[in-house]
Amino acid sequence: MGLSGAYGPLDDDEGVRVVHAYLDAGGTLLDTGDFYGSGHNEMLIRRALQGRDRDEVVLSVKFGAMRGPDGGLLGIDARPAAVGNFLTYTLQRLGTDHVDVYRPARLDPSVPIEDTVGAIAELVEKGYVRHIGLSEVGAETIRRAAAVAPICDLQIEYSLLTRDIEDEILPVCRELGIGVTAYGVLSRGLIGGSGAVEGARAMSPRFQGANLEHNTALVARLEELAAAKDASVAQLAIAWVAAQGEDIVPVVGARRLAQVATMIDSGRVTLSAEELAQLEALIPRGAARGDRYPSQAMAQLDSER
């Protein structure tokens, strides 16, 4: 998402170099959405994958978010007929005959999740999709979806600053054998970022006014432990998410080559039980101020109900 203007402009050539650096370092998971840059991100990925072995990459795609000509979000469409239509355009933009994981970006309140998952399951049978995923849905919706077809993973925000999934959502995923791809592990740059408030960050309550001052001071508590581990604050936060279970994969966005190196190198950071407890004492659950999305977007999240 960050390679398609979500956090400010970025040159496409630089975006391709970032993807290449990630793949050359052994990365395999590319997470995108057909609405990232209104198709731009998928076309960027297609360009980056030219000449490479498609089977060495896992393409995870979100669909359903509708945009207007001005880029504004217009709601979610996850009707069965729309599912196949969205995928048709995605396959064309990515230049592939299948995607590895396909998931509705959000729950469509007007469409039973069973209908949406059933439509994706038909695409699995036809070979256009390998696995079915979900995104930002609650425990009840996860159960209903899993009763229709196997669900491989749930994509949802999870970080030192956002831990609500630990109550119901994560236990249900583990009960049903569903993995978690955790996004927002750096809280959109609050953790280890430059501090710049631009693009999507400007809309986030956590980056506004006194909330930003409080949250910045909160994250600064990590600096001493990070230095002791010979790691950056960002690497420490990524390592914390990774340490929460083998069924959790941190999804980290990189916009610059140096950020790719930092992300990959976070894999060397190991945390003892004592250090994990120390981190959770430094940033207690619920300590961050401000919702993770603007109020209108929060109201549309099934995971928050």
UniProtKB/TrEMBL annotation:
InterPro entries: Aldo-Keto_reductase (IPR050791), NAD(P)_OxRdtase_dom_sf (IPR036812), NADP_OxRdtase_dom (IPR023210). GO terms for cellular component: cytoplasm. Keywords: Oxidoreductase. The keyword Oxidoreductase applies. Pfam families: Aldo_ket_red (PF00248). Gene3D superfamilies: NADP-dependent oxidoreductase domain. Residues 1-282 form the NADP-dependent oxidoreductase domain. One of its GO terms (molecular function) is oxidoreductase activity. This is Aldo/keto reductase.
